[in-house]
Amino acid sequence: MENVHAKIPWRLLFWSVQAALLLALLSWFATQLGAAQVMNGSASHPNSIHLPEDSNPPDANDVMLMNQNQIKKRDFDAANALRQKQIDEDTAKLLILAKDFDAQISKLGNKPLPSRLLREAEVIELLAHDVHTKMTLTVGGG
Amino acid sequence: MPEDSNPPDANAVMLLEQKRDSKRNFDAANALRQKQIDEDTAKLLILAKDFDAQISKLGNNPLPDRLLREAEVIELLAHDVHTKMTLTVGGG
């Protein structure tokens, strides 16, 4: 009986058990650490994997909204372009009227002002007002 | 009738002189206004020429605020000329 007990390497068995326990403890810590990182999400790591909802394509409502915005912007640009063309034309008219008006006023001398010139001045004023208003709209909207 | 050939009395003379004075003042105001209309019209033409040149140069670029102010000045000047002409025609 004494011989059987003497043959078992008690010291080796003890250290083997200790090593197995240590490995089990280490693997448990590693598992816990990994779970904690997943729970914290990607905020702490800029290079972490994105969640699926961030990279999903837009749904039908989003697409519709985007299309509506695009159409609105196109209409807005078209209206601005038209207004700018009208400003060009009105400015050219304004210059012609101003030239004619200046020539008439210079020719007048000391004679009384005719009503025709008064109407021409009114037209110039209205045209200038029109150009100014259109420019305000274009600048404000553009 | 004797009263038809009588010379005007002091009150009538005073009224006539007052009327003459006011007409003189009126003519002077009208002349001044007409001079201002001449000057303003010349300014308006210069501004309109410059404005047209700037607008033509612009192309498809957005309108700058400077041009907006210039359009405002032209409008105000045109309004001023029109108002002065109305006063002159109405009073003359």
Task: Please estimate the helix content of chain B.
Answer: over 70%
Count of alpha and pi helical runs of chain A: 4
DSSP strand tally of chain A:
0
Q: Give the N-to-C terminal Cα separation of chain A.
A: 104 Å
Task: Indicate the radius of gyration of chain B in whole angstroms.
Answer: 24 Å
Strand-residue proportion of chain B: under 5%
How would you sum up this structure, described in words?
The complex is a heterodimer of chains A (142) and B (92). Chain A is an all-alpha fold. Chain A is 80% helix and 0% strand. Chain A has two domains: 1-56; 57-142. The longest helix of chain A is centred in the middle third of the chain and has 49 residues, at 60-108. Chain A starts with a helix and ends with a helix. With 92 residues, chain B is an all-alpha fold. Chain B has helices at residues 2-5, 10-58, 65-91. Classes of the chains: A mainly alpha (142), B mainly alpha (92).
